[in-house]
Amino acid sequence: MLNIVDNQQEQKITPLLRLGFRPFFLFGSLFATLSIALWLLTLKGVVSVEPLNGMLWWHSHEMLFGFTAAIIAGFLLTAVQTWTNIPSIKGGQLLFLVCLWGLARLLILFGTASMLPLAMITDLVFLPLTAFFVGQRVIRIRQYRNLIFIPVLVLMSVMNLFTYLPSLGFDSAWQARGTHGMTLLVTFLVAFLGGRVIPMFTANGTKTTKVLPIKWLEISALASLVVVLVLLLLKDVGDFNMLTSIACLTAALLHAIRQWRWRIWVTLTVPLVWSLHFTMLFIPIGLGLLSLHFFGANITLSTAIHSLTVGAIGGMILAMMSRVSLGHTGRMLQVGKLMSVAFFAIVISAIVRSIVLAIWPQWTIQFWVLAGCLWCLAFGLFFFKYLPVLSAPRVDGRPG
Q: Which of 194, 381, 203 lies closest to 277, judged by CA?
C-alpha cells in the first residue's frame, strides 16, 4: 500500500477512525451478534421488544440494511483508497457516517411510530452518502472500472425504500421485494468480488498457478443473478414460477461450474482461503433451493433465501473482514484457532438454516435457534479477536 496519507496528521486521529473498515467491521460484527441474539430471545419469548414495523420486519431489514450495509460501506471506503491512491474519509467525516448508521439502528429498534419519518430518512441517507464518498474519488482519477459499485449502492437504497413503503400505506408485497432485491444485489456483489479476488488469493495462499477467468462464463454467471433479481421482484405481479425456477437452476449451474474451476480442494489447509471458497458454494446451493421452491417443492422461500444471506453473504463478510483487517493493519495473513472455529461455525450455521431445514422442516424453530447460536458464535469470536486489532494503530507504523 502506498504511503498516500500524511502520517503526522494521521497520528492525531484515534486509530478506530483512520480508515472505514475499522469502525464498520467492529461495530458491524457486534451488531450482527447482538441483533441475532435479540431475535432468538424474542423468538423464545425470553424478552419482548417492539421495534418500528414489528419484529419480523426488523430482523429481515436490519440484517440486510443495518449489518450488511455497514460492512459494505467499510469495505468500499477502504478499498477506494487502494484503488485510487486518494485518501479515503477518516476522522470527523468517518465518525459522522458511523454515527448516522448507529442512529438509524437505534431509531428503528427503540423509536415510536411518530419517529418513523426520522428513522427512515436517517437510514435511507447512509448508502447514498457512502456512494458519494466512494464515487467522487473514483471519478476524480477516471477509474471507471470501479464505478460499478455506485449504481449497485443506489439500487440497494431503492430496495431499502421498498421495505418502508408498506408503513406508508402501500401494498405489503413491497417489503418482500425490498429484502429479496437486496439479497440478490449483495449476492451479485459477492459473486463479482469473489471472481476478482478468490483465484488470486487461492494462488497466493497455496503457492499454485492462478486460474484465469473464462469471459463468457464470468459474464453469464453474473448476468444470471440479474435475471433472478428481476424475476423475484416481479413474482407478486404475475405467474413466473416456472420461468423463475429455470432461471435459478441455470444460474446455480453456471456458478457451480465457475467455482469448481477455482479448485477448492487445494485450499483446505489455509483457513483464510477455504473460508472464501466454502461460503461461495452457498450461491449455487441457494439458487438451487430457490429453483426447487419455485418448481413446487416443499421448501419455503425463506429457507432458500437464508442459504444466500447466512451462507454466501454472512460467510463472505466474515472471511473478508478477517483478511482485510489483517492486511490493512500490517499483520501477517494468518488466523489462529479461534477464527478457524468462527469460519466453521458460519458454514455449519448456513447448512443448518438452509439444507438441513429444507430436509426436516418439522424442526424449524429448533434449527433456527441452532443456526442463530452458531452465527452469534462466529461473529462474536470475530469481535473478540479483532477488537484490539481494529482499535490499535498499524503494527508497521504506516498510515491506515
A: 194
The pLDDT of residue 240 is 84
CA distance linking residue 174 with residue 163, whole number of Å: 6
Contacts of 64 (CB under 8 A, 6+ apart): 179, 182, 183, 186, 309
CA distance 159 to 39: 22
- What pLDDT sits at residue 280? 96
Q: Confirm whether pTM is higher than 0.85.
A: yes
Tell me the C-alpha distance between 225 and 103, whole Å.
33
Q: Which three cell numbers stand for residue 216?
A: 463468457
C-alpha cell at 245: 425456477
CA angle 372, 373, 377 (to 5 degrees): 115
Q: What is the rounded distance in angstroms from the CA atom of residue 358 to the CA atom of residue 278? A: 19
pLDDT score for 147: 87
Q: Are 345 and 377 in contact (CB under 8 A)?
A: yes
Q: What sign results for the dihedral spanned by CA atoms 194, 33, 69, 99?
A: negative
Q: Are 293 and 246 in contact (CB under 8 A)?
A: no
User: Rg of the Cα trace of the chain?
Assistant: 20
What's the distance, CA 85 to chain centroid? Answer: 25
C-alpha pair distances (Å), 180 with each of 133, 269, 284, 328, 367 = 26, 35, 16, 32, 22
Distances (CA, A) of 52 to 66, 119, 161: 14, 9, 15
Mean pLDDT, consecutive 10-residue stretches, the chain (400 aa), reads 56 91 98 97 91 94 98 96 92 97 97 92 97 94 86 96 95 95 97 94 93 96 97 83 96 97 94 94 97 95 96 97 94 91 97 95 94 98 97 83
**CA nearest neighbour of 77 among 12, 160, 153:** 153
**pLDDT in the model for residue 398:** 78
Listed as own residue / partner, the contacts of 120-127 with beta carbons closer than 8 Å and 24 or more positions apart are: 120/164, 123/65, 123/160, 124/157, 124/160, 124/161, 124/164, 125/100, 126/69, 126/73, 126/97, 126/100, 126/101, 127/69, 127/73, 127/153, 127/154, 127/156, 127/157, 127/160
